[in-house]
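re: ur msg from earlier - yeah i can do the magnesium ion complex, just paste it... oh wait u already did. ok heres what im feeding in:
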Amino acid sequence: MDGGNFLVKQNTKVNLSEYKTDDTGDYSSKKDAKDSLVKNIRKMIKLQGKLYADDRYSLLLIFQAMDAAGKDGTIKHVMSGLNPQGTQVYSFKQPSAEELNHNYLWRINKALPERGRIGIFNRSYYEEVLVVRVHNLIENEKIPGSLVKDNIWQQRYKEINNFEKYLFDNGTVILKFFLHVSKEEQKRRFLERIDKKSKNWKFSASDLKEREFWENYMQCFQEAISATSTKHAPWYIIPADHKWYMRLAVSGVIVNAMSKLPINYPRLNEEQLKNLQECKQKLEMEK
Ligand code: ATP
Ligand code: MG
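and the outut:
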């Protein structure tokens, strides 16, 4: 599984209703997929070691989805085993007063992964063309009224594409995941969160409120994905009704992208190698 199946090619007009939420590819069960997931995670651990030592590229993984689609669990499972020193997870919530006093990419810039690191965005600047659009929150953003035109969303797609190109040109590899869950599966997961004591904390009545805007969200998602899936920052639409398959699919996309990077453990030059030998001799001569 290399992720090719989930990739949204540039200039594709996405209609989300045509994308399956319950696909499981060539796999029939969680058990069946386990070995492949373990293999992918092992590969990722090796590649992370190189990414870190190489210290030139950074990897930015963006997760967007409806509530209960499994962002948290996917991040937890797929990243398990990675060196925590080389990863940074950032969850974007409603912007604070301070954040609203700046442009919408200000808080994003501060959270970008350093070179050699894997940065994970649990939600992202894409909220600016999703929840902000669905609930018409643009007025809260204090942008001068004369600058908020009818084409504000198209303008934002352009800004986002330019921003992502800038990151790409400076060594950030961006992979964007839309975890595509069905409305029925979301209902099932909400009910489970209500029925199971250990999951109660995960449920919030506001999630139910957002559910009422499902169609509206789907429209905004498909428009945003269509407009911002580019060669330098592609979107992947991942079937999310089966958590085990979603995790496998995401890990496959990440491994595939990382394998293509020209990253390696730095090679020492002649002089550095000579130095090493001198240090070795010194150590060996210690009494
Ligand atoms: P979980 O519920 O699993 O803890 P979550 O990502 O749903 O994770 P919440 O605190 O429930 O976290 O929700 C964060 C909320 O912040 C979401 O409803 C999201 O749409 C909203 N949000 C994120 N970015 C923005 C933004 N730029 N403008 C307005 N709302 C935003
Ligand atoms: Mg939530």
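cool cool. The first strand starts at residue 7 and ends at 8. ping me if u need the other ligands too
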